């Protein structure tokens, strides 16, 4: 999962036009910043961050999605991580959220449609927006045209944020533990991050205390 937080100031509004003039279409992955105070980027439906999925039947699946793989339609069973609804709702109140996933859109789009019932995601980025680096799809935050002091990436795979480890909030992979509270426990951290223009000090303290 990835988050990109962005606090818009008057100087940012002036610099946005300059950024758009020097960054190519292929590099500028996100649309122009609107009136939202913060921008939050989120990743990954395929890894075990906000849910788990498999092609084997699950009796307690939250939803089932038909996905075509190599010409065969599979029924993918998806199980939501505990407290994901509350987490997304709260993030949407504080940030502008963007789904950023290494998954293909044919899978991630329908999962996102069902998962994001409160409409937290303002934009969606898929595999083609990633950088393929040493066998991994990496989220290169520098290509998004945003101030990295306000960018936060949350992910269960360090390979996904290898270019920007200081911007990361690592999370543990989740499969089926219904007593898990990690998403709920992270909300206070993001409440603090939503109030600053530079996230590095808070994230450094968070990593050293974890």
Summarize this, please?
The protein is an alpha/beta fold and 210 residues long.
Element pattern in H and E: HEEEEHEHEEEEEHH
Distance between the termini: 18 Å
CATH topology: Rossmann fold
Main beta sheet strand tally, sense and closure? 3 strands, parallel
- Spatial extent as radius of gyration: 17 Å
Characterization of this structure:
- Helices cover 27% and strands 22% of the residues.
- It is of the alpha/beta class and 210 residues long.
- Strand 7 and strand 8 form a beta hairpin.
- Helix 2 (84-94) packs parallel to helix 4.
- The chain starts with 9 loop residues before the first helix and ends with a helix.
- The model is unreliable at 7-28 and 35-48 (pLDDT under 50).
What's the helix and strand layout?
Blueprint: H1 10-22, E1 39-42, E2 51-54, E3 63-69, E4 72-80, H2 84-94, E5 96-100, H3 105-115, E6 121-125, E7 131-133, E8 136-138, E9 153-155, E10 168-170, H4 182-193, H5 200-209
Helix pairs in contact: 2-4
Keywords:
single chain; alpha/beta; Rossmann fold; three-stranded parallel sheet; three-stranded antiparallel sheet; 10 strands; TIM50; hydrolase; HAD-like_sf
